[in-house]
Amino acid sequence: MRAYVVGGAVRDALLGLPVKDRDWVVVGETPEAMIARGFRPVGRDFPVFLHPETHEEYALARTERKSGRGYTGFVCHAAPDVTLEEDLSRRDLTINAIARDAGGALIDPYGGVRDLEAKVLRHVGPAFAEDPLRVLRAARFAARLSDFSLAPETLSLMRTMSESGELDHLTPERVWKEISHGLMEARPSRMFRVLRECGALVCILPELDRLFGVPQPPIYHPEIDTGEHTMQVIDHAAQAGHGLEIRWACLLHDLGKGETPADILPHHYEHEARSALLAERVSERLRIPASCRDFAVLFAREHGKLGLIGEMQPNTITRLLERCDCARRPERFFALLDAAACDYFGRGGHWPAPWPCADLWRKAMEAFLGVDAGALARSVMESVQIPARLHAARVDAVRKCIECHREKNIF
């Protein structure tokens, strides 16, 4: 059986990166022959099989013919007469169109090794334009391989594809899959910059696209541009090693600034409420997991207040902790503080110095959680009085915490 390792495993090995999974292409075989060898069929759209021992994926060499709009509009042809070169020709980028045979020899008909050495992302051929999802994939690889440049002809082709309206036929699930992968790369901002440069961002995330060029007060935002601030925030989230929920929230936290009336710029009064509404709409449109959606909405709504704890009254602090459901979900509030630190460092803060507000919030939260709600409830005669009494006790605990903190900082 002529089987070749292809795609990411070959690319990453040549780059000296860890190889996680290996995909194989099999030439000259039929599905019946694969099953006879003990392989288990798993592919729905084209013949893919799992190796009986390693459980790695083996796909029969295939070609594709465009038959409709979007990334699903293809007719697949897999047969023993399809060559390895024909199979590789349908792949997206040259660096993903390199194969390695059983003896370790490379098969590189489209110059992928050369582009790896030159650090260039280049499309394989005309078939790239048939699948609009490849615009997002190319942008995602730009975020992963942040020191690679995009070939001018590839960027031009991506721009043409964006203008054609093909991206409108992508399903929300596929768009989210690529965005979520891109956010988890080492430099996620690169994905969104490339999408904006080729005109795809306005198609996929118009709410984010319109942030670029929107000014902010330089006293708070030396980077001034709201879009640039957002890019710095998500890059800091990546640098700090945060998970997807925090990175998604960081991406959406300032969307409301794109709807600020022009006559009050560069100020953005009450943009948090607008941002929360837009974060929910975008998350619903892309059908993302509820945990990511809810956290993004919460952070968009509260992020403007998290940096003001030094100026807030104990009652205001307590109400914010109650709104965030800290008594039942303290770990989520810690994640909010992590996201707020990214917002702070995305506006000129000097990391890895600590975010100045984090320690005080943690102390206030510790005091808040230190109130024994059960004991208080048992001491109250009428149940209707419990919420007010509990709130008052928490305010008092937070007040003592804040006063102690201020005394230490003064004296």
Q: How would you portray this structure in words?
A:
- With 411 residues, this protein is an alpha+beta fold.
- 50% of the residues lie in helices and 9% in strands.
Write the layout of secondary structure elements.
Elements: E1 2-6, H1 8-15, E2 23-27, H2 31-36, E3 40-41, E4 48-50, E5 57-60, E6 62-66, E7 74-78, H3 84-89, E8 99-100, E9 106-107, H4 112-118, E10 120-121, H5 133-144, E11 149-150, H6 152-164, H7 172-183, H8 189-197, H9 201-204, H10 206-209, H11 226-239, H12 244-252, H13 271-285, H14 290-306, H15 314-323, H16 330-345, H17 358-369, H18 373-379, H19 386-410
Parallel strand pairs: 2-5, 10-11
Antiparallel strand pairs: 1-2, 1-8, 3-4, 4-5, 6-7, 8-9
Helix pairs in contact: 5-7, 5-8, 8-11, 11-12, 11-16, 12-14, 12-16, 13-14, 14-16, 15-19, 16-17, 17-19
Mean pLDDT across all amino acids: 91
Rounded to an integer in angstroms, the radius of gyration calculated over CA atoms is 26 Å
Order of helix and strand elements from N to C terminus: EHEHEEEEEHEEHEHEHHHHHHHHHHHHHH
What is the helical fraction, as a range of percent? Answer: 40-55%
Oligomer state equals single chain
User: How much β-strand is present in the residues?
Assistant: 5-15%
User: Largest beta sheet, briefly?
Assistant: 7 strands, mixed
Which structural class best describes the helix and strand composition? Answer: alpha+beta
Shape: elongated
How many strands in all?
11
Low-confidence stretches: none
| Cross-sheet strand order for the largest sheet | 3-4-5-2-1-8-9
